[in-house]
Amino acid sequence: MNRSLATERPDSLDSLFALAQSMAGGDAIRDGIVRDIYQTSRNICREAVRYEDPKKLESTYRLDKIVTSPIWGFPIMLAILGVVFWITIAGANVPSGMLADMFGVIEGYLTAAFQAVHAPDWLHGLLVLGLFRGTAWVVSVMLPPMAIFFPIFALLENFGYLPRVAFNMDRLFKKAGGHGKQALTMSMGFGCNAAAIISTRIIESPRERMIAILTNNFVPCNGRWPTLILLASLFVAAGVASQYHTLVTALIVMGMVLIGIVVTLSVSWILSKTALRGVPTHYTLELPPYRKPQMLKTVLLASKDKSLSVLTRAVVVAAPAGVITWILGNVTVGGDSILNHLASVFQPFAHTLGLDGYILMAFLLGLPANEIVLPILLMGYLSSGAMVDTDGMDNIKDIFLAHGWTWLTALNMMLFSLLHYPCGTTLINIYKETKSVKWTVLSALIPLSIAVAVTFVIAQTARALGWVA
Amino acid sequence: MRMYTIALAGNPNTGKSTLFNTLTGLRQHTGNWAGKTVLTAAGEFVHHDVTYRVIDLPGTYSLYSNSADEEVARDYIIFEQPDVTVVVVDATSLERNLNLALQVLEMTNRVVLCVNLMDEAKRLGVHVDVTRIRQKLGVPTVAISARNRTGIDELLEQVEKVASGKIIPQPVTISYSAEIEQKIKELEPHILRLLGTRFPPRWIALRLLDGDEKLLASLKAHLDTVAAPGLKEVVPHEQISCH
Amino acid sequence: MASTTIPLSEAKTGMRLVLTGINVQGVLRRRLLDLGFVPGNVIEVLQKSPLGDPVAFRVNNTTIALRREESSQIFGNILGGE
Fold this sequence. Notes:
The complex is a heterotrimer. Chain A has 20 helices and four strands. Chain A is mostly helical. A two-stranded antiparallel ribbon of chain A has the order 3-4. At the A-C interface, helix 2, helix 4, helix 7 and strand 2 of A face helix 1, strand 3 and strand 5 of C.
């Protein structure tokens, strides 16, 4: 030190800071501090840690050699995705049917009870056909796939596979102008877009975080992909020999997910070239050692938690939605129900998208939660006067067919479900996180216009080529 | 009933959230990837008729304000001054994990080191001499496996002792190069004069030498808040809402 | 044998290097230091991602992936006979 510091008496934090900076002299001291701490840590470890066999410690590296290898990295990723879907679809069928049957029986008793006390028809309609049936459908369609998917997802997460997905896909996200961690927040979206929006906090740069928020919706969340599974298995796979049915359904759902990822990357790319321009920020990603997940505990907790939250949501969202749909379907104005009036308003536009008015209305009423879109649609169809025997879920296909569904309707409804705006909870979270009305609105409008554009092009092409009537 | 506050600090992927869940019975989301705890979660439990409030700080590699997470963790430890800071470290990668532990020890002596994932270490053939670490660091050190619930009783015992003041840990002082030590020595008297002993002067000196402007900003903001009596910073307590 | 100093981005899979310096400033520099990219430390090149970038490195028995933008700014001397 050349200057005599004793004469300098800093009297505020700022001058103290300035003094310290004049003494420090840049990066050297910073490096020195970290190096000395590391040295201390290393000295302690040298005495306190003993490695029995380096080979054992390197088991993670050996697995990574395969899981992130140039040849096997992507095939393994796809295979895992496919297997997860296959297990979910194969496993959910039977319990879904059983739940539907059970609710059907209960509905019978309820109806009998209402008749026994000579309850008015509207009350029976409102409570049994609206509230009870709406809730029952959400539970029987949604609960089994979620109760199977979530534990598997939790196992993969606890095992440590997600960071490998980010590692494999980073180059794509870099090219698209997004942050490498966007692959992680995207993966979280498979579980729940609303939670994934919060998880984007791991992305420090506001620009890249916004891209991650705006594109998170393009991976199907738990509320949507039971819809995808159901539609895929009912229609697209219907022409396939029954032993391959589950497999083909899984492949179609996987295809939808891949489309979602392609859209994610494309939209990220466009955003990073336009509204959210900028250079990718620096990036470090830890690949933590693989850990043996506690199978039973993870499975039990994940299915219990998810089942509970699905049931809660069914009561909170599906029950009122069921009531509203029933009212709309049964209050008549000028000889026709409000529901039918609304559907016919949407019909012309919906038709150009290969959908119908009821479907668009179901998506509109389903804004609070994607889980209720399909049940609302079914209720809409049923109250529209179509005479369909509805003992259970087996007849969903007949209901759809009676309303003129073709493979195009099924395909475009899947695409619309995949691409359209995020659910209400997610939008609320987007607003909370961005504090911006503009970006929240955009986060709904961007996906919506893509959904409209994609389904429009497909519908028009299919019709022009004479593939559908 | 008496109440103590415990902060959980540690690297990402050390099982901090699992320990939090084990202690509080709550269900913080757990997973094996960096940055999954994006919120500061709070919970409570009772042990020997004393209530412990547990704060799960974001998992960080360091406390040198590289990111918002690290600032949250650092500000909590230095300004809220929890009764005990439990530093959770991964037995299978101690070298990097102790880096953070040593940073915490420069900020407070009320620390219990919690060597987690002992079951994984055993599986991977890593032997950790906990006694040795305790001697070297000068703070209570406990080996646990949060997910198997082993070692939790011992951990609680040490936490209780540090919280109640039965044990006053004397942590190791990291010795820096002569040049850095000289500068610390020159800065310390000024720091003592300006800030008193509320914050460890040696640590403040190091942060100032490091040029940590964000800490400077936090310090100023904190001094302003404290100057207005009756105001106490509130810990954000949010839950991820998910369906 | 005189050792050659190369950026980590030029190192081949399986190589081990002693770090000599980091040529970045600010937050990234601190982050890299905190992760163990400290001069004098030994780094092993573990694995390229399937699309060639990023690359995973072994630092203090942990695995950290860096993009080329970052790894080209970190320098080290190759260890061993390679």
